[in-house]
Amino acid sequence: MTAKIVVLLVDDHAVVRAGYKTFLSLSDKVGMIYEAERGESACQLYNQYQPDIVIMDLSMPGMGGFESIRRLVSRDAHCKILVSSIHNELVYVTRVIKAGAKGYITKNNSPETLMAAVYQVASGNTFIEPALAQQLAINVASERGVSNQIEELSPREFDVFCLLANGLTTRDAAEKLCLSYKTVCNHTTAIKEKLGIKTLAELALVATRQGILETFDRSSMAMLEK
Questions:
Q1: Which of the residues bear the PTM 4-aspartylphosphate (predicted)?
Q2: Among 117, 148, 153, 210, which one is most buried in terms of CB atoms within 10 A?
Q3: Helix, strand, or coil here: 195?
Q4: What gap in Å lies between CA 174 and CA 178, rounded to an integer?
């Protein structure tokens, strides 16, 4: 008998975790499903249960999705992470794959797409939802990738970059990410240096050109503030 897939769900919204868990439980290929609401606890649960796949959100307080991916992969090179996010811009896809994730889908996908992604990633394959995979292929073919400057940002710097670009103050960003004000200030300075900019207005312009601001509509910001 083939062993069932052990899943670790990582999302700070209990409703999202409940929905995913309900659907995944319907599959006879899925076994135990563990839950974490932030990256710190996800790392602990991963060490404890060694799940076959981690389904990870990106926009979480504390460590955040990108840093969580980096830490999990650094601890276990065979860690299989499927990102499920509200973000549908290619800059997010390329960054999570570069960080070590094996798959990427957006949260507006059908349950069937989620299940297909889980099966593929748990089996050791990669999975990027078809629409995004097509966009990536077009970008590669036309040699139009995301800005090299954006790629130079660390996972935590990228989190700060996104929040500041969408109008949060440095103090608000610090509270959102559970970091000290001084730490976020240091990240902000590093971001400006790497992007070659001096003001937050220029930072927002860079984000707009990369399509990052388009994801943060009112509903998305409301989710972040919960």
A1: 57
A2: 117
A3: helix
A4: 6
- Separation of alpha carbons 83 and 132, rounded Å: 13
Q: Which DSSP category does 78 fall into?
A: T
Per-residue tokens: 33: 């499903």
Neighbours of 118 (CB within 10 A): 27
Q: 199 in helix, strand or coil? A: coil
* Phi and psi angles of residue 219, each rounded to the nearest 5 degrees, phi first: -70, -35
Can you give the length of the chain in residues? Answer: 226
Two tokens at 197?
């900019």
* CATH of region 148-225: 1.10.10.10
- Verdict on whether the full-model pTM lies above 0.90: no
Q: In 25-147, where does DSSP find H-type helix?
A: 39-49, 65-75, 90-99, 111-122, 130-141
Q: Over the stretch 24-36, which tens digit does the pLDDT of each residue have?
A: 999 999 999 999 9
What is the rounded average pLDDT of the residues 221-226?
Answer: 37
SS3 of 101-119: the string is CCEEEECCCCHHHHHHHHH
Q: Which CATH class is domain 5-141?
A: alpha beta
Q: What is the pLDDT of residue 24?
A: 95
Under 8 Å CB-to-CB from 29, ≥6 apart: which residues? 2, 4, 5, 119
In this prediction, residues 209-221 reach a mean pLDDT of 51
Domain-by-domain residue ranges, the chain? 5-141, 148-225
Residue type, 146: V
Domains 5-141 and 148-225 belong to one CATH topology: no
Rounded mean pLDDT, 64-77: 92
